[in-house]
Amino acid sequence: METKAEFRAHLKARRDAMPETTRTAASEAICAHLDRICRERHFTRIGAFWPFGSEVDLRPAIAAHPDWLWFFPRVVSTQPPRLAWGTEPLEKGQWGLMEPGFAQHFLPPVQLLLVPGLVFDDDGHRMGYGRGFYDALLARLPGDILTVGVGFEAQMHLPVPIEPHDWPVASLLSERGLRLLNPGD
What we know:
Layout: H1 4-16, H2 20-41, E1 45-47, H3 59-64, E2 69-78, E3 81-86, E4 90-92, E5 98-100, E6 112-115, E7 119-120, E8 126-127, H4 133-140, E9 146-150, E10 171-174, E11 177-180
Parallel strand pairs: 1-2, 1-6, 6-9, 9-10
Antiparallel strand pairs: 2-3, 4-5, 7-8, 10-11
C-alpha cells in the first residue's frame, strides 16, 4: 500500500496529466455551476481559492462578479495549522500561493466555502496537500456555511484514507454540477 505522501504525489501527477484544454473547459463549467448556485441561493459572500498549479481555476467566476465579496485564505500558522481570510488584492505568500495581503478573519465571514483538494470521496472526505489547514477550519466552522469540495470529476468518487482529525464537506462540485451529500442542505 502507498503511503499518504505517495498517494498525494500520485493524485497530483494524475491531475497534472489532464490536458490543459480539458482542465480549462472543466473549470469554466464549474464556474458556470457556481454562478447558478450562488444566484439561486442568493450567496454573495464566498470563500474561494486562487488556483495553485493544476487546480480548478475559479478566476472566471471571481471576475464575473466583482460586486460579490470573495474571501481568500492566508497561511498564518503551520503549527497549529491556521488560516486567516481576507479579500483582494492578493500577493504571493508561503509556498507560492496567492494570498490576501490583509487577512483579518480567522473564520471566513461567508455563506459558501469552496474547499480545494486532490481527491474527494462520496461522503465528502477529502485529501489535500497534507498540512491540515482545511480540516482545522472545517472543525470550527459554523454549520450554516455551505461547504463545497471543488475539483474535477476525475478527482471525485475515489477512496480517501480517513483519520480522526479529518472533516468532510457537505457537498461536491465538479464540471458535472453540485452534488449535495446531506439532503438537509
